[in-house]
């Protein structure tokens, strides 16, 4: 299933916003931070498909493959039910979302983005007696949508592919009035991180091809519950054991118990959805 299909107008508008910003600033692009969806061009400004299936993706994105870094660590958290702290000031994610990218055109320019979408329409609470999450009701009003630009965007494909791409500067907040560009999430709600690759077409009217020039990827094991304090003590223990910045909380010298023998990756098929496969 293409998880990005219902959100594609937002991605389209982000591409248009990016292109418009480049024009207004003489070629400069927004560097890092978040683009508020409310500030993007309206959906009505997008080229209509007339009810037809969208055309195939541009060759600059159709062959891209994205591989999640530290897959064993993500899977270990996922088995326990990953939790990510959100604060008013903003908190970085751990594990950090990092990927390796292949299949880009080396000389073409790309913008890399992330956003977070609710997994469902429910709000949760943690039952300590059963060590499990329970549905507590319907979800709160959806927090303002934002897209986080990787701070090195735009860059040529050769640069993106030569090293691990890390979103270590991205922060999560529960402050609905945040003006620092952090990603706004509701506590006690589940989210799916999504990663987007946007080809920056040099043509002045490239916004007409916005629907062809991006590809979206998601990894189910990166889903998490947004919390203001860790609920599952096993998550707390695993964070302390595996986070190098939390070594002061360890009671004994930890060893790397994680194996990265299997690398989970997704590739961009013709319709822009994410296909999952595993390299042994």
TrEMBL record:
Domain T-box residue range list? 68-251
**Source domain of life:** Eukaryota
A Pfam family recorded for this sequence:
T-box
Q: Sorted alphabetically, which PROSITE patterns does this protein's record hold?
A: TBOX_1 (PS01283), TBOX_2 (PS01264), TBOX_3 (PS50252)
The record's listing under SUPFAM superfamilies reads: p53-like transcription factors (SSF49417)
Entry keyword set: DNA-binding, Nucleus, Transcription, Transcription regulation
Which InterPro entries does the UniProt record give?
p53-like_TF_DNA-bd_sf (IPR008967), T-box_DNA-bd (IPR046360), T-box_sf (IPR036960), TF_T-box (IPR001699), TF_T-box_CS (IPR018186)
Q: List the GO biological process terms.
A: anatomical structure morphogenesis; cell fate specification; positive regulation of DNA-templated transcription
Give Gene Ontology CC terms: chromatin; nucleus
Q: Where is it localised?
A: Nucleus
One GO MF term attached to the UniProt entry: DNA-binding transcription factor activity, RNA polymerase II-specific
Establish whether keyword Coiled coil is in the entry: no
CDD domains the UniProt entry points to: T-box_TBX1_10-like
Q: What is this protein called?
A: T-box domain-containing protein
Say which species the protein is native to. Answer: Takifugu bimaculatus
């Amino acid at each position: 299933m293409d998880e990005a299909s219902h959100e594609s107008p937002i991605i389209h508008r982000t591409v248009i916003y990016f292109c418009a910003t480049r024009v207004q600033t003489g070629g400069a692009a927004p560097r890092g931070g978040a683009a508020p969806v409310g500030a993007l061009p309206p959906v009505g400004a997008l080229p209509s498909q007339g009810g037809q299936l969208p055309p195939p993706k541009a060759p600059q994105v159709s062959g891209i493959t994205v591989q999640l870094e530290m897959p064993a660590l993500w899977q270990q958290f996922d088995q326990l039910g990953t939790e990510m702290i959100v604060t008013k000031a903003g908190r970085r994610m751990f594990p950090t979302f990092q990927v390796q990218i292949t299949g880009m055109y080396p000389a073409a320019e790309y913008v890399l983005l992330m956003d977070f979408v609710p997994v469902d329409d429910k709000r949760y609470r943690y039952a300590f007696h059963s060590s499990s999450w329970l549905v507590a009701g319907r979800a709160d009003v959806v927090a303002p949508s934002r897209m986080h630009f990787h701070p090195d965007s735009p860059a040529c494909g050769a640069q993106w592919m030569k090293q691990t791409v890390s979103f270590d500067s991205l922060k999560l907040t529960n402050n609905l009035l945040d003006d620092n560009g952090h990603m706004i999430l509701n506590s006690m709600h589940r989210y799916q991180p999504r990663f987007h690759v946007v080809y920056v077409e040099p043509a002045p009217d490239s916004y007409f091809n916005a629907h062809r020039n991006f590809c979206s990827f998601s990894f189910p094991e990166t889903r998490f519950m947004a919390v203001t304090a860790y609920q599952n003590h096993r998550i707390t223990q695993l964070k302390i054991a595996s986070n190098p910045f939390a070594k002061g909380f360890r009671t004994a010298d930890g060893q790397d118990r994680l194996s990265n023998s299997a690398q989970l990756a997704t590739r961009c098929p013709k319709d822009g959805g994410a296909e999952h496969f595993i390299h042994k």
